[in-house]
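4.2 Preliminary Data

To establish feasibility before requesting continued support, the project team ran the inverse folding procedure on a target of 302 residues. The structure was first converted into the token representation described in Section 3, and no sequence information of any kind was made available to the design step. The complete token record follows.
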């Protein structure tokens, strides 16, 4: 009964992960001048991988007959690593607002397409409605009221980040079917750490000597990587990839609310409308996910 209850709460695990991811922007706002965004992204994966390995060892996840095929694990790790580089490079080219909205808005679309092509899971009509509502809401959130810089290379990089996130979610979903989520996530991030290692070796580490830099990196590595991706993996056990990635659109909602409350940012009327649309989309998708799980449970019992 407890295992069934845990699986029925998959969407709440994913929403919790999204809330943690939503603190990324606020945390990076506290990074001191001179910090390297690409190095921050790389360190996030490395520290997160170490924390995930520690968690998996403490929970005994590696003693449960771990069977991870090489290529899916490597693909998920490469997806995690390339997501960091594409996202930060895209944001540097076309700005935070446009880069973030293109990345987060495109990831559910890529995830839905990849889910159908790889796993033959066809997204339902409510997923389409929820995704459209959430993407429109994110678009309204990204309207700062000032001049918006749109760079075609930045847009392509942001789209690449969205695709990489979809790749990670697809392969992670397959790996956790027969393996503990903590162990799977730990091995994926270890693979990603290998990919980003050359970036760290070429980075001047002096900015990390400041206490504030260290706190930011530790928060990003332990809280928004190890903690959030573990929650996301647990949620994927009972939620489809397409629905899970759409639920992660709670991330920009969280980021906007934190910017309002902590960083003193001001939200426009379109931004408030965007928040309402995202709330509605997440509620609709959460209800649909629970309904589908209830139908599946009744079918299984019969």
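Position-by-position output of the design step:
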């Amino acid at each position: 009964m407890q295992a069934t209850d845990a699986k029925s709460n998959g969407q709440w695990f994913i929403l919790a992960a999204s809330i943690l991811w939503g603190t990324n922007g606020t945390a990076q706002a506290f990074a001191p001048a001179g910090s390297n965004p690409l190095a921050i992204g790389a360190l996030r994966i490395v520290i997160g991988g170490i924390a995930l390995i520690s968690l998996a060892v403490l929970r005994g996840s590696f003693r449960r007959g771990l069977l991870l095929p090489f290529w899916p694990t490597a693909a998920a790790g490469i997806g995690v690593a390339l997501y960091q580089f594409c996202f930060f490079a895209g944001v540097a080219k076309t700005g935070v607002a446009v880069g973030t909205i293109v990345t987060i808005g495109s990831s559910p679309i890529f995830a839905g397409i990849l889910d159908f092509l790889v796993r033959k899971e066809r997204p339902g009509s409510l997923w389409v409605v929820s995704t459209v509502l959430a993407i429109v809401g994110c678009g309204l959130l990204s309207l700062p009221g000032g001049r918006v810089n749109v760079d075609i290379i930045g847009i392509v990089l942001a789209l690449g980040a969205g695709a990489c996130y979809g790749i990670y979610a697809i392969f992670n979903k397959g790996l956790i079917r027969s393996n503990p989520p903590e162990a799977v996530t730990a091995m994926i991030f270890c693979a990603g750490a290998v990919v980003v290692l050359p970036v760290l070796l070429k980075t001047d580490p002096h900015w990390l000597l400041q206490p504030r830099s260290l706190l930011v990196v530790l928060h990003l590595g332990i809280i928004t990587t190890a903690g959030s991706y573990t929650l996301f993996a647990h949620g994927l056990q009972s939620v489809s990839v397409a629905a899970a990635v759409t639920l992660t659109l709670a991330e920009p909602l969280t980021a906007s609310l934190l910017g309002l409350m902590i960083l003193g940012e001001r939200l426009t009327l379109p931004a408030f409308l965007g928040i309402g649309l995202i709330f509605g989309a997440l509620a609709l998708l959460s209800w649909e996910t629970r309904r589908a799980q209830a139908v599946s449970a009744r079918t299984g019992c019969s």
